[in-house]
Design a protein that fits this description.
Two copies of one chain form a homodimer. The radius of gyration of chain A is 20 Å and the shape is elongated. In chain A, strands 7-6-5-10-8-11-9 form a seven-stranded parallel sheet, with helices on both faces. Chain A has a four-stranded mixed sheet with strand order 1-4-2-3. By secondary structure, chain A is α/β, with parallel strands linked by helices. The relative contact order of chain A is 0.14. Chain A starts with a helix and ends with a helix. Chain A contains eight helices and eleven strands. The interface between A and B is large, with 41 and 41 residues.
Chain lengths: ~250, ~250
């Protein structure tokens, strides 16, 4: 099927936050991301635009497929070297209800879409669900965040809050026992702190200054670094903490 | 001081692997990377080119400083939105001699400079030193690898091999007891394998197919992923393994 004029306009509009808000949809670009999306959340997919050159390597239900001339495609694409496939999908409603899994990972003013996607994938691989964030963080449904996250966003419970304090208080109302802030300089060791994954919130901030927001009752947790060089980024820190939870689950 | 014509030519040449090989130097771009370089390895720095707009925020010994007009600077810079500082530094000779630290992290055909830099920083933060790699991996002294690694390359023992087998055999000759290959699908759990960091080599491959090279006596190690989604990248996998070594050191 050919791409309609309306669909083309939608594809273009979805590059902006405003366009996503208006339509309730997002763009999911890249072969792997779209395959995952179709495998796990087929009901969310509106259609998949595929460039003529890429139409041989990608298969999906014919009623979803839209073949697009290469030149037009590269104009629509958000990447420099495109893989030739973008799906348009419905953004799920924001999570509500009970906390699922063992802990909440919270991002405070995390502005980098690459870090966001990496963290989302670590969380999903670890079998956890709750990814909360404050105002000033990247839009999880933006092009780059989806590419980097390869669409795992669709399987997570994303919840947005104005401030870290509001986020923490909402957690406490839902039965959270402790709020931990990952601190690059001081705190309990993440490897020995017993309460770390027991109905808790773990807050990660944008690098390199850690968490900007405040919550008076928060405990501090640190990733020990024996090297003389402290420079792992927010995504690496989150991955270490998330897989420490996996290690404990396995033992 | 002004940038000489020779220095300008060098800055341009260092964007290519050939230029680096010929001169034995590399380019280190970004405020933080250059600051670290000057703090830890000042003897390696030949000079630092700073754009006129950035000259207020950066301080270094006047004999190293070269002020460059903004327009020329953005032409030299490898980034889209430049921070306005590039240092030219001597590439250290390839590491030789004994293995330093508890284990070797080896990269088999890892082509992504972002992943390379992330892994280098995790290793350095963990207080380890040996980062080996095979042909087909990214040049550790390329622009992007240095930006992503923030210059930690200078503090690591980097060693290059033609194949994974040569790498493994060299390790065994130097007293390595076990070679572990990180495998996305099967193997001993990285959280319970006792020998994992005991004079071993741990091999990480480019995503998503894992390690391409072979070594007959290698053991397989897996990062358990309870989620229904296996999609952490090479840098995340390496970070999990590296910080598991930190956890054991701390206990």
């Amino acid at each position: 099927m050919e791409l309609s004029r309306k669909e083309l306009a939608l594809l273009r509009a979805l590059a902006t936050r405003q366009g996503r808000k208006k339509s309730g949809c997002c763009r999911c670009e890249g072969l792997r991301a779209v395959r995952e999306l179709l495998a796990f959340y087929p009901e969310k997919v509106k259609f998949a635009a595929v460039s003529e050159s890429a139409s041989g390597v990608f298969e999906c239900a014919p009623e979803l497929l839209r073949i697009v001339p290469d030149k037009l495609f590269s104009e629509i694409s958000g990447t420099v070297s495109t893989q030739g496939i973008i799906a348009v999908a419905q953004i799920p409603p924001e999570a509500s209800g009970e906390i699922k899994g063992n802990f909440v990972l919270a991002l405070d003013q995390l502005g980098d879409p690459g870090n966001f996607g990496t963290i989302a994938r670590s969380l999903r691989a670890a079998g956890e669900y709750e990814l909360w964030y404050t105002k000033g963080s990247i839009d999880p449904w933006g092009d780059k965040a989806i590419r980097s996250g390869m669409g795992v966003q669709f399987g997570l419970n994303l919840r947005r809050f104005e401030t870290l304090e509001e986020l923490a208080l909402a957690g406490v109302r839902m039965g959270v026992k402790n709020v931990f802030i990952a601190d690059p300089h001081q705190g309990e060791s993440c490897f020995t702190c017993n309460a770390l994954f027991d109905r808790s919130i773990i807050v990660i901030g944008g690098e390199p200054n850690g968490v900007k927001g405040a919550y008076p009752d928060a405990r501090r947790v640190i990733i020990p670094m024996p090297g003389d060089y402290e420079s792992i980024n927010a995504a690496q820190a989150a991955t270490v903490l998330i897989f420490e939870s996996v290690r404990r689950k396995m033992n």
